[in-house]
Amino acid sequence: MIYINWYQKNMPLIFGISSYIVNPLFIYLVLTKSSKQMGKYRFLLIGFAVFDVFYSIAEMLTPIAVINTGYGFVTFITDGPFSENANYAVSSRCTFISMSYALLIIHFVYRYLILFYPHQVDKMLQPFGILAMIVLTAGHGASWTWLCEGCLSPNEEIRDMIRPAFLEIHHVNSDNISLLTGQYRNASDFVVYKSLFGIMSLTLFSSYCMCVYIILGYKIMKKMNENTNMSSISATLNRQLFKALVAQTCIPMFASFLPTVIAWYAPMFLINVTWWNNYICNVALAAFPLIDPAVVIYFIPNYKNTLLVWFRLKKPTVTAALTSMFSIPTM
After folding, report:
1. 73 closest CA partner among 232, 298, 205, 260
2. Taken in order 169, 171, 174, 177, is the CA torsion positive or negative?
3. Cis peptide before 329 (omega within 30 of 0)
4. Which partner for 140 in 102, 136, 216, 289 could form a disulfide, CB atoms 3.0-4.6 Å apart?
5. CATH code (residue 76)
6. Host domain of residue 44
7. How far apart are CA 58 and CA 298, in angstroms?
8. Transmembrane segments in this chain: where (predicted)?
9. H/E element holding 64?
10. Residue 310: is it exposed, middle or buried by C-beta count within 10 angstroms (0-12/13-18/19+)?
11. Which residues pair with 183 in a beta bridge?
């Protein structure tokens, strides 16, 4: 075990336990408090919640930390069964980031189809569509893992370079520690070019996901503003659910994309951001599977009001059933 600080050691555990409580609760709300017209879209919400649970499991089994080594960085596992001599452990842990990007793309595509091609929505949740979503998610994960292992896994040269830093800072031998590393200077051309290719590829990969969110989000928002045939109730529900999706998108953008970009590129300019990585970046990554369902609950009135009644913060009221944004098409 390598002790970094209280936050790095305990916050992933706290967020993980909270995630195990909130996500099953969220699944219960989706199954029991969703409008019937929501149809099969409920399964997408449930799928995201199940993914969040596995994300939390990965966080707790493979807690990670980062140190800077001059013109480079090292991401390593600090504790647990995969902290030593575990090939692909760090890469597999990091691949959950790219898989969360894929799931958000699926949600944006669904919302886009609802507004632009409503009669095609059913195909998305048929066997072929489900297979396509699985392939997209698995492809994201496999691509991220391949880039990490192919470009950032350490060789003997890297092991020799980082050994003094680990001995000085953590007083441990880094030879058997599970880690990934990027080195931009003071190394062989092979190591430098491999690191640069890997980091730039991961950045382009993440940027493509952000572009999909922005483009589809803009089209969805524009369509909602132009659609005058929609009832006021349906329009309100459309906006509520779109706000939830935008908030869900901001979580990985600010909790994973921006923090990791800073962690990747700061060492190029000899900027030491070890404190940022271990106090901010890793804690933000651990919080994602907890914040994600909480945001959806907040923006969907049926879910939020149910919890407020349960906690006696609001009196139960009898309201007329509202027509969901998914009433067209009927699923």
Report:
1. 260
2. negative
3. yes
4. 102
5. 1.20.1070.10
6. 6-327
7. 26
8. 12-31, 43-76, 96-116, 128-147, 196-220, 241-264, 276-300
9. strand 64-68
10. exposed
11. 72
User: Looking at the domain assignment, is residue 101 inside a domain?
Assistant: yes
Q: pLDDT value at position 28? A: 95
DSSP labels, 154-192: --HHHHHHHHHHHHHHT-S-GGGB-EEEEE-SSS-HHHH
Q: In the Cβ-directed half-sphere of 276, how many Cα atoms lie within 13 Å?
A: 17
Q: What is the pLDDT of residue 111?
A: 84
Residue 170 vs residues 10, 71, 267, 272: alpha-carbon distances, Å? 18, 19, 20, 16
Q: What is the distance of C-alpha 169 from the center of its chain?
A: 30
Joined tokens for residue 284: 């933000």
Tokens of 62: 């493979």
Task: Give Cβ neighbours of residue 327 (< 8 Å, ≥ 6 apart).
Answer: 37, 234
At 320 the pLDDT is 39
Question: How many residues are listed for the chain in this entry?
Answer: 331
The residues pairing with 75 across neighbouring beta strands, listed in sequence order, are: 66, 180
Evaluate whether residue 239 is within a structural domain. yes
Q: Which amino acid is at 105?
A: I
Per DSSP, the residues of 232-291 read HHHHHHHHHHHHHHHHHHHHHIIIIIHHHHHHHHGGGGT---HHHIIIIIHHHHHHHHHH
| Number of domains the chain is built from | 1
Beta-carbon-side half-sphere exposure of residue 79 (alpha carbons within 13 Å): 13
The secondary structure of 65-113 as a DSSP string is EEEE-SSEEEEEE-SSTTSBS-TTHHHHHHHHHHHHHHHHHHHHHHHHH
> Which regions of the chain are under pLDDT 50?
319-331
Q: Tokens 């370079």 sit at which residue? A: 161
